[in-house]
TrEMBL record:
Principal location: other
Record-given protein name: ABC transporter substrate-binding protein
Signal peptide: 1-26
Keywords (A to Z) from UniProt: Signal
Length: 335
């Protein structure tokens, strides 16, 4: 898959930092943030202490994203990683960020559960002199000085790519679509909806129902069951991620229909389970969302701590897969 120039150079940068990191203290990777009080790490010892607040563990995509971060921000690469899982709750993320501020970490990074409501805690980080890096999802704030950089995909573009393929394949057939939205208020849910709707505008593809499935397989299945009970004329599912699409497959099969044939399915992410369903003909098209953000985050964190200029927005480039492309890509797929 295509990556930014930053990613291509990150291994070299990480190795340089590894030289500083010999003898570094143990990482907190995987643990909850400490209650606060002690000041840990400090870039002046050659080790960057980074507090990361993850959205949760809601999807295959999220698992791959967490792995990429934990595999990259290691002691060997010059990091002490403090990692916390917010279980898809904004209040947990705010609490984790406050804890990282109290602990005096060198950098805070997080993937915001929802877009709004971050200004106060980001202002607290700024006042404490701790730089913040956004990964994966954006915040909706008028003050761009509250964070150093935002690394992630263009979600509007992903929705557009999905919608463009649907129009190319099915325009003129009067398709009725249902939409499984991501978490309400989350950037990928807002942006993918916007992109898909703009791409199908002017075609005869119509969204007849749309509800959140919270990016999980279980909720995707439940919402799809509701759609199937309510409508007997569904031609297509647009799911904001693979996991909800996989839940929809279960609901469609339980209703005695064939996913990918009776009801077409288009999703976003391209994780292995989704790609396998595409190869099996149960999903018809997948737009990729690359979760391997650890190397970019490492490079940006190193630059920020060193006082170097960083790009405010780093867009990760995504591909898209039909069945033939998925067959080719699946054997060497990293996630
Ligand atoms: O923010 C990225 C989205 O969050 C992924 O598409 C989804 O699977 C995850 O939960």
């Amino acid at each position: 898959m295509a990556r930014t120039t930053l990613t291509r150079t990150v291994l070299a940068a990480v190795s340089v930092v590894s030289l500083f990191a010999l003898g570094a203290c143990a990482s907190d990777a995987g643990g909850e943030p400490a209650a606060g009080g002690e000041t840990s790490g400090g870039a002046d010892d050659g080790v960057i202490t980074l507090g990361f607040s993850q959205v949760g563990a809601e999807s295959g995509w999220r698992a791959a994203n967490t792995k990429s971060i934990q595999d990259t921000l290691t002691v060997d690469n010059g990091f002490e990683l403090k990692f916390s899982d917010a279980q898809q709750k904004q209040e947990n993320q705010i609490q984790a960020i406050r804890s990282y501020i109290t602990q005096g970490v060198d950098v805070i990074a997080f993937s915001p559960v929802v877009e709004t409501g971050w200004d106060a805690v980001l202002q607290e980080a700024k006042s404490a002199g701790i730089p913040v890096i956004l990964t994966d999802r954006a915040v909706d704030s008028s003050d761009e000085t509250l964070y150093e950089s935002f690394i992630g995909s263009d979600f509007v573009k992903e929705g557009e790519m999905a919608g463009e393929w649907v129009v190319e394949q099915y325009d003129g057939e009067g398709y009725q679509a249902v939409e499984l939205q991501g978490t309400t208020g989350a950037a990928p849910a807002i942006d993918r909806k916007e992109g898909f709707e703009s791409a199908i505008e002017g075609s005869d593809v119509e969204i007849i129902d749309s509800q959140t499935g919270n990016f999980t397989r279980a909720e995707g299945k439940t919402v799809m069951e509701g759609f199937l009970n309510k409508h007997d004329d569904i031609d297509l599912v647009f799911a904001h991620n693979d996991d909800m699409g996989l839940g929809a497959i279960e609901a469609i099969e339980a209703a005695g229909m064939t996913p990918g044939e009776d009801i077409k399915i288009v999703t976003i992410d391209a994780v292995k389970d989704g790609m396998q369903a595409l190869v099996d003909g149960k999903i018809n098209y997948i737009v990729e969302c690359n979760p391997l953000l650890g190397p970019d985050l490492a490079e940006i964190a190193q630059k920020v701590v060193a006082g170097e200029e960083v790009e405010k927005r780093i867009v990760v480039k995504d591909e898209a897969f039909d069945q033939a492309a998925a067959e080719e890509a699946l054997p060497t797929r990293e996630y």
